[in-house]
Amino acid sequence: MTDVAGPIHVVYIDSDRERAAATAERLESVDPSLDVTTAGNAADGLAALTDRTVDCVVSAYDLPDRDGLALLESVRESSPDLPFVLYTAAGSEAVASEAISAGVSEYIRRDAGPDQERVLADRIVALAGAARAERGTDRPARRDADREIERTRDLLAHTERIADVGGWEIDADTREVFWTENLFDLLGIESGEEPPLAEALDVYHEDDRQAVADAVEAGLDAAEPFDITVRFRRGDDQFRWLRVQGDPVVEDGDVTSLRGAVKDVTDRRTRERVLREMYEIISDRDRTFGEQVQALLEFGRAELNTEYGTLSRIEGEDYLFELVATDDDSIAAGDVVPVSATNCEIAASTEQTLVLGDVARDAPGETDRTGYTEWGISCYLGAPLFVDDEVYGTFCFYGTEARTGQFSEWERTLVDLMSRWASYGLQQRETQRRLREQNEQLDQFASVVSHDLRNPLNVAKGHLEMVADECDNPSVADVAQAHERMERLIEDLLTLARQGDAVSDVESVELRPLVEQCWDAVDTDEATLVIDVDARIGADRGRLRQLFENLVRNAVEHGGDGVTVRVGELPEGFAVEDDGPGIDSADREGVFDAGYSTDRHGTGFGLNIVEQIATAHGWDLRLTESETGGARFEVTGVEFV
Q1: Per-residue confidence at 382, pLDDT binned at 50, 70, 90?
Q2: How far apart are CA 531 and CA 165, in angstroms?
Q3: Nearest-angstrom CA–CA distance, 185 and 337
């Protein structure tokens, strides 16, 4: 058989075309195997499904011509098994519940996480891989020289052989049963005279026997075809899962016989169970990452029938056991051994999964390692772990008894899946560590700004007041204005330093009174406020107030005399716009950059703070033009409560 690898074709549907294009670009960047086509509405998305082979559909909830759940229903009518991901920040828990009930493959919320596209890409790959495997159309792809993250392997591991299928026929008049030779082999029964129909039914599991009998009778009496999966007791008394299909043969309006095929699908059912149990482990939010890995190691050790399962880190010449699953007390978490003593050195140096059913047989050149000569490690299956595209260590299973055969492709696939998930978790852990360090630096910075700058500024302002009482010089006003600008800079810098964390303290906030409070807090001079929103949203009240104050201040300072500021509601959020001169399209990309300002008295941080507040909530912020040509800031992805 030949490995088949190819791109994963995705249709991403989102009415916000700019967001759709940006998301598609980021998905293809974080995972080059993804080929993403975008559509702006449900109709175009459905059309894209007919133009090419598609592996997964990703859709927002709010679409111009129907919502995401209605689109899901349309997709299911023509492609019942096509993976469908609802990727949206709109709606509520009720939407999530309804989506899951409707049969959506995954419900993912957009948030402020730095690896959000990686999360989405991983789920697309996993869902598409499982769907391809179910169809038997895909095989694993190997890690290339550029160290791309290794593709999820084909979950069924191999195309099933024709010898795995047996045929049968039942005469409608005599009820005689005929079997092909393959069926005797498949069922573990000696070739010979076929059993009568009643005896043939007896070998099915008692819970499934009636279902088979009913399907056969319906086929013979009512010409109804059937396709069922049931348990069958082989001649060696082992129960196996069988897919049984039957098709009536009709002549002159009468059923003359019932013909069908039987396929052993036990391995597939076993894999489905394994994947389901593995998913339950890694999706358990009550467990820490370390507890999830520990559970995976125990689970993998049982499935692979090995004595040891470990996640280890390689540091130079040292091999550190971080997590260990074993009944043996010879190794424990925290132990350190020379990396040269282990087979993991091979997996790490080649950056590929290492499969050794029998070390002496499969890699005789490695039998001089201490792991073999002193520890007796005779079988090994392990994969490298990656953080920042560099080898971190290994995720492996091994034992002291050599295997008669080799680890199967499925077993290798299982370890690859677990190691890939572990790599992702390690990368998240490293990212969080860096964020903590950055936050500590920001806290130190905020302390310096708050005390070491503000204190001397207060002293300077106090002396200036005394000078102003004694000296009538226009330069005093200029110095005072400079002091005020420094005060604004300090306030904005402190705000920036505190905006790094994602929002966790969310409450229900009524927008109208909050906007009115923000308007009163800003020097709005002759400006006019119009509020066309009465919604409640989930937000951090303090940060949301800062966002509105900054947008109002920006409109008043740049909108001109008598500017009108309008706050309106959007399907997924709200908008703040004015009727001033607006912002030139060429300058719009830079307005959210720190330090950008067209006012020499401005700090240049106001809109950057707005963007950070929106991002911390998981919202999307877009600058466009109002109907009157003024500036319009749209905030979407907001949850109404």
Answers
A1: very high
A2: 70
A3: 50
